[in-house]
Design brief:
about 325 residues; alpha/beta; Rossmann fold; L-2-Hydroxyisocaproate Dehydrogenase, Chain A, domain 2; nine-stranded mixed β-sheet; 11 helices; 14 strands; about 20% strand; binds NADPH dihydro-nicotinamide-adenine-dinucleotide phosphate
Length: about 325
């Protein structure tokens, strides 16, 4: 039998965590032959609801679930973790300024970065879901000097899947036949869902859609604001789809995804005029075993794309400025 993989999850008792843990434990994330140990991290008030979730995990009798540990101690929770999914974050509350949210989260993610640095497996892959995800990834990495920045990723996979689903609906294709949709920049309303490289059944997506006004006036804002539309309809934020995107991201990273283009917020290498040290979403391919490679050799973006990519870059820059005083030198 395969050696179990240790998967740490923060915010485990939250709405996303509830959906996520079931998918991980059932084998959806790492495959039907890969046992897992779950290492669940919560705040003190989260421990009681978490005990209910662990009762449900036990009651599912998942054949692949080897052990479940629940803790408020970050180093214990991240101990020897091969995968860490950071979901817990300070929610935006009424009257809270954007800067307050950034600062509150920076301290949470600074502590988590330091604990990962101290206790996680040296080849841990860290996926940040909690918002503001890109800047939280930056803060966590800055506090983990012994781990490579490349080991920290911010999730933009849900945005990618939302964009692909919208193109499928518009063209009547199956979402499986929509490829190479790219999310650039921040996981926020400034993100740029880009169809320039996308294909539908192997043909250029923009040609299949044949409606530039739809792309610019409907598709892009709809993808950017999809989260708000779900809150409006459901009365609660998206949780199952966010969990599903985290499962997809980690599966592709660990198992590999051939030549598929997948979007991830990763540390910039300076390309596209994005300064190094920002966590900016770009297309990558995944070879498996935690290795990803950015898609290179793309033609220079057209003026529209360049301006969209720059707007989301500027937002990330201002987020970094908002937490700079908390970053270790
Ligand atoms: P959720 O599980 O719904 O959301 C958790 C985080 O994911 C939020 O920051 C949320 O951002 C973010 N997120 C990213 N993508 C999405 C998406 N597509 N849809 C919705 N959310 C998204 O929050 P809950 O309040 O239900 O649960 C949070 C849990 O985290 C609680 O149990 C709490 O105790 C715990 N927690 C743990 C901490 C820790 O481990 N140190 C610190 C703080 C909280 P947004 O707010 O922008 O929607």
């Amino acid at each position: 039998e395969k050696k179990p993989i240790n998967v740490a999850v923060t915010g485990a008792a939250g709405a996303i965590g509830y959906a996520l843990l079931m998918r991980i434990a059932s084998g959806d994330m790492l495959g039907p032959n890969q046992p897992v140990n779950l290492q669940l991290i919560e705040t003190e008030p989260g421990m009681k609801p978490l005990s209910g979730v662990t009762m449900e995990l036990a009651d599912c009798a998942f054949p692949l679930l080897r052990s479940v540990q629940s803790t408020t101690d970050l180093e214990a929770g991240f101990g020897d973790a091969g995968l860490a999914i950071l979901v817990g974050a300070r929610p935006r509350s009424k009257g809270m300024e954007r800067g307050d949210l950034l600062t509150a989260n920076a301290s949470i993610f600074a502590a988590q970065g330091a604990a990962l640095n101290a206790a996680a497996a040296r080849d841990v892959s860290v996926l940040v879901v909690g918002n503001p995800a890109n800047t939280n990834a930056l803060v966590a990495s800055a506090n983990a000097p012994d781990l490579s920045p490349a080991q920290f990723m911010a999730m933009t996979r849900l945005d990618q899947s939302r964009a692909a689903a919208a193109v499928a609906a518009k063209t009547g294709a199956h979402v499986r036949d929509v490829e190479r949709v790219v999310i650039w920049g921040n996981h926020s309303a400034t993100q740029y869902p880009d169809l320039t490289h996308a294909t539908v059944r192997g043909q250029p997506a923009l040609k299949a859609i044949g409606d530039d006004a739809w792309v610019k006036k409907t598709f892009i804002p709809d993808v950017q604001k999809r989260g708000a539309a779900i809150i409006d309809a459901r009365g609660a934020s998206s949780a199952a789809s966010a969990a599903s995107a985290a499962v997809d991201h980690m599966r592709d990273l660990v198992v590999g995804a051939g030549d598929a283009w997948l979007s991830m917020g990763i540390p910039s290498d300076g390309s596209y005029g994005v300064e190094e040290g920002l966590w900016y979403s770009v297309p990558v391919t995944c070879a498996g075993k935690g290795v990803y490679q950015r898609v290179g050799g793309l033609p220079k973006p057209d003026d529209f794309s360049a301006s969209m990519m720059d707007a989301t870059r500027k937002e990330l820059l201002s987020e970094r400025d908002g937490v700079r005083h908390l970053l270790p030198k």
